[in-house]
Amino acid sequence: MQTRELLIERLKKKSFDFKETDSRRCGYGLEVQTLSSHIRDLAAVMRDLGLYVVFVTAVHVRPGIQVVYQFAATDVPLRVMVRVPVPPDGTVLSIAGIFHGADWHEREVRDLFGLSFGEHPDLRPLILPDEDVDLAPLRKKEKKLKDIMDIFPGND
Amino acid sequence: MTDSTREFEVYRFYLNLGPQHPSTHGVLRMVLGMYGEHVVDIDPVLGYGHRMHEKMAESRPWPMFLPNTARMDYACALPHNHCYVSLIERVNNIMVPDRAEYLRVITSELNRIASHLLWLGAFLLDLGAFTPILYAFDDREQVLDILEHVTGSRLTHCYFRVGGVSADIDEKSIDLINVFVRRMWQRFDIYDKLITKNIIFIRRTRKVGIILPEMARRYGATGPVLRASGVAHDIRKHEPYSVYPEFDFKIATAKKGDAFGRYLVRIEEMKQSLRIISQAVERLPAGPVRADVPKKIKLPSGGASFSVEGARGDVTYYLVGDGTEVPYRLKVRSPTLSNLSLIAELGKGILLADLIAVLGSLDLVIPEIDR
Predict the structure, then answer these.
(1) Mind listing the domains of chain B with CATH numbers?
(2) Cβ of residue B328 closer than 8 Å to a chain A Cβ
């Protein structure tokens, strides 16, 4: 069976909320929405199928920051976007224990958005200088902040 | 504490490598825990070249960010350029004329060769061989002359525009490219004699810094680093973009995943790039080089990404639009960040001299990591 079908089957089995998208239109074939508490389960599924972490980043919208992951396969053309809303305590569970490459990406998100990653092995600042470590430069000012419905239409 | 661990603690010392060390290529600093000549732990310190490009992208209309894309990976700027304009074209359904796509491929591949030549010279310099960089820069100079003629700049090329390229290519450039391709094919023999069969080079790189496919996936390593581990993953073939499917070329791979394998992969990639360039120049279609696109293009709501194969691997741009001309969020995925992140695991327990060889073989461009 192809990686794509296998992945869809496993996502269904673990009842993840996903939808298929047109990769020619948006660059990825699957979109998954989940919660911080399930992100490790999801990452483990990706790892077992041989996908790698393309990037981890975040988008600041109202009501809260969304952490965004992209995974890609090396055997078939398949990219998966995953979106996780940050819980009220500002901490998303880290996937660095599953994908070691996510370590630096998560540290970068900590720098740029001031988020915290739970159970991260070493959440020190990565790229910001010492005086700016708590600046969170990519957080939007209230005036520029947009509603999640305007930014990710068709999703909640 | 046992005697041996006490001895280890007493004799362990810290060595600071960089940010101005020549083998860290740019401004990478590494704090190395040493035990004699052996590296016991590595703590890379990044951010010396951080310019917050992603914030700049959020604070201006999207066309004004185009020059920024050429300033992240300075050694291979055109794939970043390509990725950004293709992403804007993707979200707005803009078709690009064939001639423009061919020119994009030709210039991107020339840029890839220039980047690999720069790497080749610098890598051998790291290993203490001074001569190869003179040959590599001689060749790279020819590519830069062509790219200067076509794109207008020698380093931070910003040649692609949404809907095409900024200017058409002239007969003189075509001639220069043909001359260069013929010349470059003969140069590989020289490199073969000078480097590939050099016993010192072989001893310094073979079985050094072995990256297994499983480890490469765990860290998200892509490009020549992944291909040298035997995984034939190349976005040009795998998720074809532009007009790459029209050309006949192979994915260069090596089996062992060591520094020598990464050298072989990049040499083979230069040959494959030459093949692509010859085919593209031969079949270059006539016609316009830029589609008629509206002056003001708004970015629709929602996320979209685009990936290209840069000289160092998977370059991905992720754009979130909000219906205005200014991107709401733009994420730049640089391959070097993931490729370097495995160094802490890879370098544990090896000799300091081997660490320099491993760093060189990863082909680091630090401003791309820091952005």
Answers:
(1) 6-370 (1.10.645.10)
(2) yes
Cβ of B333 within 8 Å of Cβ of A103? The answer is no
Mind telling me how many Å the CA of A122 is from chain B's nearest CA? 11
Q: Which residues of A touch B42 (CB under 8 A)?
A: none
Distance CA B74, CA B68 (A): 10
Give A27's contacts in chain B (Cβ within 8 Å): 87, 90, 304-307
Question: What pLDDT does A156 receive?
Answer: 46
What CATH number should be reported for the domain holding residue A23? 3.30.460.80
Answer whether residue B1 shows pLDDT above 70.
Answer: no
A59, part of any domain: yes
Question: Residue B54 is nearest to which of A68, A74, A138, comparing CB atoms?
Answer: A138
Q: How far apart are CA B231 and CA B212, in angstroms?
A: 10
Residue B196 in contact with residue B268, Cβ under 8 Å?
no
- Degrees (nearest 5) of the Cα angle A130, B327, A31? 95
Average pLDDT over residues A86-90: 87
pLDDT band of residue B160 (cuts 50, 70, 90) is very high
Q: Which residues of B touch A71 (CB under 8 A)?
A: none
Phi, psi (deg, nearest 5) at residue B198: -80, 125
In the numeric block, which tokens belong to residue A67? 């952490």
Q: Residue-wise over B172-207: b if at least 16 C-beta within 10 A, else e?
A: ebeebbeebbeebeebeeebeeebeebeebeebbee
- Residue B64 above 70 pLDDT? yes
Q: With a CB-CB cutoff of 8 Å, which residues 88-107 of chain A face chain B?
A: 99-105
* Nearest-by-CA chain A residue for B234: A74
Residue A1 pLDDT more than 70? no
